[in-house]
Design goal:
By secondary structure, the chain is α+β, with helices and mostly antiparallel strands. It contains ten helices and 14 strands. β3 and β4 form a beta hairpin. The radius of gyration is 28 Å and the shape is elongated. The chain starts with a strand and ends with a strand.
Length: 286
């Protein structure tokens, strides 16, 4: 990290900030953003995410928080931790006890505890490059999920990745769709499971779409059962299977809707067209 010329503004380089509002003030700490994301996911510890134990009101200008502010933060952190652990609001006596303990802490201890509290409670400010990377990765995950499970309910055919991508771009850009203007804003730090329901619902205004799992019963002649079984497990979830007296394989399989046609073609190829397949149920997802 270095200072830029006369502006005396800290250049964070590859580092970033976690920001928190408290007591009518802004508090900032300097962090390694990728490690912070790992920390949120339980894949890294606090020490890996925090660059230094220092709390700022404005990190880029080097404006540090006062000792009194650090004590307030640490006192709040201790109070919240004890109340969560005990399951009740602290009594006046309990609060005064932890207040005295906090007042006895050295400055370095206050900085460390306050920094860790801000890491847990604050908001990560993502660098643009990392934000774009995470959003691109998330969009690919969403496309892969929709392609796997979605079909056009009118034709029962799956959508191509490009068709899904084009529809998502319409959502993300906020283009007007008929009389409505719909815009979805992705959060790069959320799991796609949290955002998929609203995305799928919004996509229905652009393309007819249904997410489903197709339950099928297949009968595979004995001479092809070994090879075909591999296709069953590759594309679907085999709920039950049994070998018949003549050596044929009978199985009940769950197949993602968007992969069903490909699954069917692969089994037909593996059995040289002798496959018997019956759709038992189409289970809608969401």
């Amino acid at each position: 990290m270095s200072f830029r010329g006369e502006r005396k503004k800290l250049d964070l380089g590859n580092y970033s900030l976690v920001i928190m509002e408290a007591f009518g003030k802004k508090f900032e700490i300097i962090v390694e953003p990728r490690k912070v994301i790992d920390f949120y996911k339980g894949k890294a510890n606090e020490e890996e995410a925090i660059v230094l134990y220092e709390v700022f009101h404005d990190a880029q200008k080097g404006v540090k928080a006062s000792i009194d502010d650090l004590r307030k933060l640490v006192l709040r952190a201790a109070k919240e931790k004890l109340e969560e652990k005990s399951g009740h609001v602290l009594s006046r006596e309990e609060f005064e006890k932890i207040k005295r303990e906090v007042e006895e802490l050295e400055e370095e201890n206050l900085k460390e505890l306050a920094t860790k509290y801000i890491l847990r409670k604050g908001e990560l400010k993502l660098p643009k490059e990392l934000r774009d990377e995470l959003l691109e990765k998330k969009e690919k995950q969403i496309i892969a999920y929709i392609q796997k499970y979605a079909i056009n309910p009118a034709t029962k055919a799956p959508y191509t990745p490009q068709k899904i991508s084009d529809a998502l771009k319409t959502l993300f850009s906020g283009q007007k769709i008929g009389e409505r203007k719909i815009r979805i804003m992705l959060d790069p730090l959320k799991d796609i499971d949290e955002e998929l329901p609203s995305i799928i619902e919004a996509l229905k205004a652009i393309i007819p779409i249904r997410l489903e799992i197709i339950v099928v019963k297949v009968l595979i002649p004995p001479q092809f059962s070994g090879l075909a079984y591999g296709q069953l497990t590759k594309f679907g979830n085999v709920i039950e299977s049994k070998w018949l007296d003549d050596g044929s394989l009978e199985a009940i399989v769950e197949v993602p809707g968007g992969e069903f046609l490909h699954f069917h073609r692969k089994l037909l190829d593996a059995t040289k067209g002798s496959l018997k397949l019956e759709i038992i149920e189409r289970k809608k997802i969401g």
